Amino acid sequence: MKGLYCRQGETSGLKFIIQETDVPTSLSHHQITIQVKSCALTPVDVQLYKDLQLLKDSIPVGREVAGTVLQVGSKVTCFQPDDEVVGILPLDNDVSGLCDVVICHEHHVVHKPEKVSWVEAAGAIRDGLRAYTALHTLARVAVGQTLLVLDGASPFGVLAIQLAHYHGVKVLASALSLEDQKFLEQLRPSVGVRESLLARVIGVWDTKVDLVESCLEETGGLGVDVVIDNGVRLYEEDSEAPRHLPHKHDIITLLGVGGHWVTTEAHVQLDPPDCHSLYLKTASVSFLNEEVWTTSSACQGRYLHILKDIVEKLSTGTFRPLLEHPVPLYEATVYMEMVQKKQLRKRAVVQL
């Protein structure tokens, strides 16, 4: 059967190809076979594969899958054939999630509610996991706190906003373009409506708008309790970093006392003045890496609980993911290149 894989080119970077692959026919005691109905496309982190010594000539692409159970191992207790499931294949998986059939351990997937479509399930599972990891595991948000989501119109940002609102958190979000600002403004309430997903949208695309001043103004000069970034500039004169990215000093400045900065930037370097500012505020920094859940068996129970809660919130409408129209397998290489270059503002999902 065919699957999507990427290879490291000598001069052109990553190259995505659809190639024939073989799926094992025998199952271990706790494995299940899944007929894939949909698979989400996520950028491939080659450096992470190198760090974990998992880098191969061909890296399987597509790990967030939703489908129907075909066969179960002799000791599988959670699933039966014909069950509808959704989950994330592990990093060391040998088969692309875009294959018709994949095999995985029973503890990597959860049941999919009937109300949730295949596309929604596959498209939201990773961003939902990232939102839970950022808000609950790392920041431990509480009712009444103020959260700033940078790049709120991204697929991850939208779910983070929705999850924070569900738990009674006041949410501010930055918009990278006029289109993003209009989209986020639609999440704000009309006159007379009490429920609001967003307290304020900060259009950082406008050079007249200052992120720090806007956050301090909204919080009465106290600063925000939690910041979730989507990248950060490490140096004032960083010509390679996009202009919309905030400088690390700006994030530290707008944090309140006891604040928490959750960063997606793996190479944040804090200088002594930065650390001193954090010390004075008793603030802290955490690194967001959702892959950590599958690195320790001690986290397995919490991990499955989070996945179950994500699909439940999809079923009730609490989560409304930002998705592209489903694309067929033969267009997967084109869309994957766009995903890898971060040219899409919505999550791309392949319909099999």
Describe the structure in your own words:
The chain is of the alpha/beta class and 352 residues long. It is 28% helix and 24% strand. The protein contains 9 helices and 15 strands. It has helices at 46-51, 118-138, 155-166, 178-185, 211-218, 248-254, 272-281, 300-316, 332-340, and strands at 2-8, 14-20, 31-40, 59-60, 64-72, 84-88, 101-105, 109-111, 146-149, 170-175, 200-203, 224-228, 255-263, 284-287, 349-351. The strands form 3 sheets. Strands 3, 5, 6, 7, 8 and 15 form a 6-stranded antiparallel sheet that branches. The longest helix is centred in the middle third of the chain and has 21 residues, at 118-138. The protein is globular and about 60 Å long.
Number of strands: 15
What is the CA-based Rg, rounded? 21 Å
Ends: how far apart?
A: 12 Å
Give the topology string: H per helix, E per strand: EEEHEEEEEHEHEHEHEHEHEHHE
Q: Structural class given helices, strands, pairing?
A: alpha/beta
Number of helical elements:
9
The backbone outline, from C-alpha atoms, is: globular
How helical, in percent, are the residues?
25-40%
Work out the strand percent: 15-25%
Task: Identify low-pLDDT runs.
Answer: 189-194
Q: How is the biggest beta sheet arranged?
A: 6 strands, antiparallel
Mean pLDDT: 90
